[in-house]
Fold this sequence. Notes:
Blueprint: E1 7-8, E2 16-25, E3 35-45, E4 50-54, H1 63-74, E5 82-87, H2 92-96, H3 121-136, E6 139-142, E7 150-152, E8 155-158, H4 164-177, E9 181-184, H5 194-200, E10 204-209, H6 218-234, E11 248-251, E12 258-260, E13 265-269, E14 276-277, E15 282-287, E16 297-300, E17 305-311, E18 315-316, E19 321-328
Parallel strand pairs: 4-5, 4-6, 6-10, 8-9, 9-11
Antiparallel strand pairs: 1-2, 2-3, 3-5, 7-17, 8-10, 11-19, 12-19, 13-15, 13-18, 14-17, 15-16, 17-19
Amino acid sequence: MTTNPINSTVDFERDGVQHGWLELPYSRDDSAWGAVMIPITVIKNRRGPTALLTGGNHGDEYEGPTALFELAGALRSEAVRGRVIIVPAMNYPAFRAARRTSPIDSGNMNRVFPGRPDGTVTEKIADYFQRTLLPMADYVLDIHSGGKTLVFLPFAAVHRLEDRALQARCEAAMEAFGAPYSMTLLEIDASGMYDTAAEQMGKVFLSTELGGGGTTTPETLALARQGTHNFLIQAGILDGEVAPSKTLRLDMPDGRCYVTSRSSGLIAYCVGLGEQVREGDVVARVYDVERTGCSPVTYHAGRNGILVGRHFPGLVQMGDVVAVVAQPVL
Length: 330
Ligand code: CA
């Protein structure tokens, strides 16, 4: 197998706090022998498990990068038992461009795993996570939110796994994270995901959707900070107690949880995030903007539940996810 060209300026085996970069050679017009410099922090002390914390898997989601740049600057090695590896912005070119995908190769980090050491920039980053960072980790937290085109109720999420013992450990991490909602998430397409790569290696993997619209709020940031802290306590890396918090368990049993647009135009929501819907209820109307005098196209909930996610911008295109409905687990 080809060696990955990324050079880490930090030593993962050294005790203490190190701030550095994953240095990825990227020759281009404005820098012939240049590199993409992806910030990384490693904090190691005593013996214990390793947690790998990431944000910016999608470059237009900000709770993860904000909470993790903060944590990287604040966490002291004396507080750590084991090792914490922090990459605040995983798809760094996408993050710098405020885009979901990379401006270099259009790579969507969460669709290219396991990556390629001789592939595109995005594929090389994925390969470095796949073959270098993930194998070092016991606990993996990847903080997402909706980005510029989606917005969610704040939830932490696990997947249904064949390995039920691993799923139970992921669920324990989700409980500890302490988001107002805890989701068993059904992916539209799980292939190529970082999540799947980590789960297949048997890692305790937790992801989140903490808001969206391409920005943060004080509430979603507070949740990202507290949830990350709780995650590290639950992993046994930080001392302390996880304060018990109320969370509503949600499930997505099948594809009817997703409502997809079959038209384009102006979208008018009839239901807000967190509100209950019954199967068949109108969740949104889409107005044709190419002519006047047309009736809007109505979109209906495919099942009973609550609205946990929706399209964010005021205009929709055909094929956009309009609504995500999940079912409370009582
Ligand atoms: Ca995302």
